[in-house]
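Field notebook, page 307. I keep forgetting to write these up properly, so this time I am using the form the group agreed on. The chain and the ligand, norvaline, are recorded exactly as supplied. Prediction of the bound pose follows.
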Amino acid sequence: MKKDFLAVSDYSADELNDLIDLAIDLKTEYFKHGNPPLLKGKVLGMIFNKPSLRTRISFDMAMRHLGGDALFISPNEIGLGKRESIADIARVLSGYVQGIMARVFEHDHVLELAKWSAVPVINGLSDYNHPCQAMADILTIKENYGKLQGLNVTFIGDGNNVAVSLMHICAKLGLNFAIANPEGYDISEKAVELAHKFTTTSKSQIKFYRDPHEAVIGADVIYTDTWTSMGQEEETQKREKVFPPYQVNQKLLSEANPEVIVLHCLPAHRGQEITDVVADGPHSRLFPQAHNRLHAQKAIVLQLMQG
Ligand code: CP
Ligand code: NVA
């Protein structure tokens, strides 16, 4: 197991499957009689350079359920890379806490933290990827279908951080991944190349579409996310003109497999990338998916911080 959790692409399929299975065990145990205090005395320092509901609260609660604690580190206070270098912050924090979770803009910042930190670093979202989200997504898919290999996952919308991690985890674990996105909003070539590399072992298929209606044919999972990610706010108006054909609505849903499930990392912009009817309808797994952040991350902190 690696020291850090920075990208699902850093992990082997076996390691990812083991983490998912650990999350399932921890979840079952939690609902039966609670988890044992395996992280007693351990503290996760949480750096947030962007806002959060799910990531912040689910990491905090994951630590508490395991007998540990979490510490919110205000961005204004530490001024990551501004008030003090990332290398110095990492080395100082390593003497205070037993793990660091960071949500950053530039992906290099979380890499730099990991490079200098003596304790595990977990990526809680960067402009490039969102690996903890992908773990909760796969957990939700596995709970729903009882399997992973051969399922068809279709992402509708921006080729963003969430899409990158989802594509990589699908490519690692043998799920087929398709994305439909407007021109100019493709997943980066570098991330696509990496995904193709993984498919030589997993036999996953990766497909790229402009037309969302074509992309959802045969889909077992439809996934969407905001049209404008954190940090891109000045592009909001431009994006609102380009993305409406990529809305996940009842019509699009009816073109997928009859048992299709709908996922969204949240926060949702209802009426934009997803309609209320779909988000609150029988195919939606949005809230179990959000709740699974807790269980997936419990497995991650336990794996990295125990011992
Ligand atoms: N999905 C997700 O990461 O949500 P938050 O931004 O609220 O943490
Ligand atoms: N793509 C979104 C995900 C939020 C959890 C963003 O980066 O804002």
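OBSERVATIONS:
- The CA atoms of residues 100 and 261 lie 33 Å apart.
- The beta strands are 43-48, 69-73, 99-103, 121-123, 152-156, 176-180, 206-209, 221-224, 261-264.
FOLLOW-UP: compare against the apo run.
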